[in-house]
Amino acid sequence: MNLEEFVKKLGLTINPKLHVVVLTGAGISAESGVPIFRGKGSMWENPEARKLASKAGPPWNTRETWEFYEWRRKLVSKCKPNAAHYTLVEMEKYFEDFCLITQNVDGLHGKAGSKNVLELHGNMWKGRCVRCGKIVSLPETPLKNIPPYCECGTALRPHVVQFGEPIDPNVLTAALTACSRAELFFVVGTSGVVSPAAQMPLIALQHGAKVVEINPNPTVLTPYMTISIRGKAAEVLPQLWKTFLLFSQKQEVKF
Ligand code: NAD
Ligand code: ZN
Predict the structure, then answer these.
(1) CA dihedral sign, ordered 207, 210, 215, 219
(2) What pLDDT, on a 0 to 100 scale, did the predictor assign at position 251?
(3) How remote is the CA of residue 223 from the centroid of ligand 1, in Å?
(4) pTM recorded for the entire structure
């Protein structure tokens, strides 16, 4: 893999004024030890996860749902952010207009130090009251009480968007706005089959952005990408960022 060639092919001068958006999926946390959602290495290969998930369901503030989430939270509590998460922290510091959009609920971007993260699908370290809507931080696992309760006396649900549920309109609007003004867009570790996240790189493309995919496997998005880099996020992203920075130091060079 010659990353210099990839960077040249993009035809962009990297500078802090560039509008940059990054969309991440389960693949960015794979090397941290968080199982992905589909295919080989997915959470569903574990029979315990399947059994617990089968008992979880609406209204999502039940003991059964929290037993499934506690299983996931315990697993993720042992995982640390990896080099890809940390690279995005560096990128956020470098670019003046940088937007990180994630489909992940594991909270690892925040743990790495990313400041502004649009969590499309919520965060497993938070609960939400089904009555008053209050969002409560629940960083400890195991929880003292299952289900945990809101101060209004109602059981909380995980602050995670379930299949078929809408994304918080404020979060979605912010993400779509960022996509439409992106000049450089990275899609990292997503299979591109969950909407509306899957449309975001395409929206950016329509508005003229260069879109770079980082994934060890081809996806449904691959045919549309400006560049697809086959590799693991924790290996490719730090190297790619280093290559970008080397080029940015030669500001006079315009590719
Ligand atoms: P997905 O499981 O559908 O796809 C994961 C993608 O990551 C695949 O394309 C795979 O090839 C790629 N991948 C695997 N290892 C990788 C690596 N080391 N580096 C880069 N890419 C790698 O995940 P998705 O597209 O995010 O959709 C799954 C949905 O499930 C999301 O909506 C998310 O909310 C939820 N989910 C979240 C987590 C998490 O928070 N970490 C984990 C599983 C599922
Ligand atoms: Zn409440």
Answers:
(1) positive
(2) 53
(3) 19
(4) 0.95
